[in-house]
Each structure stands twice: as C-alpha cells, then as structure tokens.
Design goal:
- It is a single chain.
- The protein has 14 helices and six strands.
- A six-stranded mixed β-sheet has the order 1-3-4-2-5-6, with helices on both faces.
- Helix 6 runs antiparallel to helix 7 and helix 10 packs across helix 11.
- The longest helix has about 55 residues.
- It is rod-shaped, with a radius of gyration of 41 Å.
- The N and C termini lie far apart (about 85 Å).
- The structure holds guanosine-5'-triphosphate.
- Keywords: Membrane, Transmembrane, Transmembrane helix.
- Its cofactor is Mg(2+).
- One of its GO terms (molecular function) is diguanylate cyclase activity.
C-alpha cells in the first residue's frame, strides 16, 4: 500500500482519493469520445448504439468505486485507494473497447494503456504493477487471439507490430516505475533522516531553553525566567484578580557557609527549594532570585492566603534538617506584597524588598508585608531615619 497516502488524515485522504477518481473518470470520458470519433469515422466494428449500451456496465463498475469512496468503506480496505482494482478494471475496459475498433484505430488507441498504467505506477508496489502490466498484455493477446479464432479480423498478418509496441510500452513503464520507486525510497530515507535531525535539534533547543531558564543548583527557575513569567502574568492579570509576591531570604546564611563550608550551604539551598515546592500549589512559581534569596508568585490569592502560605514556608524551613547536617536553628525572613491589575512589577518587587528589610530589621525569622505602595513609602522613611 502507498505509505504517503496512508499517512494522511482520513478526511484529507478521502479528498485526495476522490480527486484521483475524478481524474480517472475524465480519462474514461476521453477514451469514450475518441472511440465515438473512431466509429463515426468508419473505424468501428460495432455501431454507436452498441457502444452506448456497452458504456452502461462500464459506468456501473465506476459507480461501485464511487459508492465505496463516498461511503468511506474504502477506508476499511488494506489499500483505501483501491488503486490496483481500479487499474485492473480500467485495463479490462480498455481491452474491451479496443475490441470495438478495427486494426488501424486499435493501434492508435493502444496508447491509452499508458495513462491507465501511469495511474498506478506511482502508487502500486512493483509486484502489483507487474501484475497489472501482465494483465494488460494477456488481455490484449487474448483480444487478438479471439479475433483470429472467430475470424472477426481478417488481417493478413498477425498483429506483431501492435504486440511489440505494447510489450515495449509495458517494459518501459516497468523500468520507469522501478526508477521512480527507487527515487521515492531514497527521498523517504532522506525525509526520515531529516525528521530525526529535526527532533534532535528540537530536543537540544528544549534542553538549552531549560538550561537558560533553570537554576542549576536548586532546579528552580532562575531570576530571568521568573521576571519574564511574572511580567507576562501581570500583563494578563484580570481586573478583579490578585496575586501574591514574596521575597524570601535565608537568615545568616553566610554563617552556615563559614561554619560548615560552601557545600553544606549548597545543600541548605537545595533543601529549602525541595521543601518549599512541597508546601506550594501546582500553579505557584518559586524561583531562585540570587544567592540565598528566593522569590515566590502565588496566583489568585487573598492577603490571608499569602500570609498563611509564607508562614507555612517559614515553619517548614525552621523544622528542616538538611541530610547529613545538624545545623540547628535554620530560619528565613519573608517580605510579602500583592500584585493587582495595572501594577508595576519593579514597584511590587521594591515593596516586597522593603517588607523583607523590615523582617530582617525586626529580628529575622518572620514574615512582613507591604501590601500597598504607601506601606513601602513608610518603610523607606523608617529605614532612612
Ligand atoms: N553555599 C552557597 N553560598 C552562596 C551561594 N550564593 C551566595 N552564597 C552566599 O550567601 C551568603 C549571603 O550572605 P549575606 O548576604 O551576608 O546574608 P546572610 O548571611 O544570609 O545574612 P542576612 O541575609 O542578613 O540574614 C554569602 O556568603 C554568599 O557567598 C551559593 O550558591 N551557595
């Protein structure tokens, strides 16, 4: 079966098959017209009435194909295009119709074996094509033989030239078909190689994107990615919606590094990232903002929920015991604010930073909030006094 057609969606495939069927009907119409012309010009061995009568079973055979295509029953077949069947039926009618002509017209219309076989050349397997070519040849020999047997054709010579021409045509078509098939095979291999290449590149791109947006140590998204994401969320924030924004800073982190070493500090950062993610909902975004500072975006929350969530993080970290380390007294400070429609991200981050500063100033291990711009202004005033 032809793989290029079977890869299509059923609807697209049916459209293609119906178009192809319409093309075949055009070819039938052309042959019938030429036949009429041959009969009218005195090359027929039957009258026009017989030809018209003979066209009825021909049309009925095409109706069967049409109904199969229209009803979609062809899709249940191994070859939904019914190409081999259509080619064999067309070859049969071509031979029958040639039987209605005298020698001269027959030689001319012999050429119509070519478009019929070409119809299958690009779609059929080499074996199926060889079957069709053999059917055409045997059919034509049978026609000539029955003519000779029933002495309908009073040719002085057996139709060597016609048979030789037909053999040459079929042989050439066979060779051409093999060539086309080999080319298609090569193109298919190249396409597969290209697709494989494309997939590798896509994978690498994804990896690069991940690397560019992820913090290597904690696996959280990094500052750049967070800011892009938060900016996007803020731009699309509906008028009534409210997001929570929090800056989280681990307390006295320098001491941990100094006392237990940088590797221990790293492990504490990783521990925080893991436990914080376990405390958050699916849509919440936690990112490493830099050093021992993290940033949190909480979609669709009220002020109480922001506070509760941040308290939960604070308590969870206070109870944490990073694997293999007995540090004791881990704590963090959090500055919270909210994001509303029309807010500016930089201003919101400044508010959260002011609140964080207050949390540090008031003794650490606590959550403080600057919900409104006025809170942040008050924070700045008290910081400078
Ligand atoms: N282990 C480790 N340490 C880091 C990393 N990034 C930054 N640090 C350290 O984090 C420490 C931050 O120290 P400070 O800014 O003084 O803050 P702090 O000691 O936590 O004090 P407060 O924030 O005021 O409580 C510095 O010693 C940095 O070297 C990291 O990736 N791994």
């Amino acid at each position: 079966m032809n793989t290029s057609t079977t890869q299509l969606e059923p609807q697209a495939l049916q459209r293609l098959l119906l178009n192809r069927f319409a093309m075949a009907q055009g070819t039938y119409a052309m042959v019938l017209l030429l036949l009429t012309l041959a009969i009218v010009t005195g090359h027929g061995r039957v009258s026009l009435d017989v030809l018209l009568l003979g066209a009825i079973p021909l049309m009925l055979s095409q109706l069967v194909f049409f109904l199969l295509l229209r009803s979609g029953r062809n899709l249940r077949l191994r070859d939904p295009g019914m190409i081999e069947a259509q080619v064999l039926v067309a070859l049969f009618w071509q031979t029958v119709l040639l039987g209605c002509l005298d020698d001269a017209a027959r030689s001319t219309l012999l050429a119509f074996y070519v478009p019929i076989l070409l119809f299958g050349l690009f779609q059929l397997s080499p074996r199926a094509f060889a079957r069709c070519a053999a059917f055409a040849f045997v059919g034509f020999v049978g026609l000539e033989w029955s003519d000779a047997s029933f002495q309908l054709q009073f040719a002085a010579e057996p139709p060597f030239l016609q048979l030789a021409t037909l053999s040459a045509l079929l042989f050439w078509l066979g060779l051409f078909g093999r060539h086309v098939n080999a080319m298609r095979q090569r193109m298919r291999q190249r396409r597969h190689a290209l697709v494989a290449h494309q997939n590798t590149l896509r994978g690498m791109m994804r990896q690069l994107e991940d690397q560019a947006s992820t913090d290597e140590l904690t696996g959280l998204c990094n500052r750049r990615h967070f800011l892009r994401l938060a900016e996007h969320e803020l731009t699309n924030l509906p008028a009534q919606a409210q997001y929570g924004l929090a800056l989280i800073d681990l307390d006295h982190f320098k001491r941990i590094n100094d006392r237990y070493g940088h590797a221990a500090g790293d492990r504490v950062l990783q521990t925080f990232a893991t436990l914080a993610q376990a405390c958050l909902r699916e849509g919440d975004v936690l990112a490493r903002y830099g050093g021992e500072e993290f940033v949190l975006l909480l979609p669709n929350v009220n002020l109480d929920q922001i506070s509760i969530c941040c308290e939960r993080l604070r308590e969870a970290f206070a109870a944490a015991e990073p694997l293999g380390l007995s540090l004791g007294g881990l704590s963090l400070s959090i500055g919270m604010t909210r994001l509303q429609h029309g807010d500016d991200l930089d201003h919101a981050l400044q508010r959260a930073d002011q609140a964080l500063y207050r949390a540090k100033h008031n003794g650490r291990n606590r959550c403080e909030a600057s919900w409104e711009p006025s809170d942040a202004r008050a924070d700045r005033r008290s910081a400078s006094s």
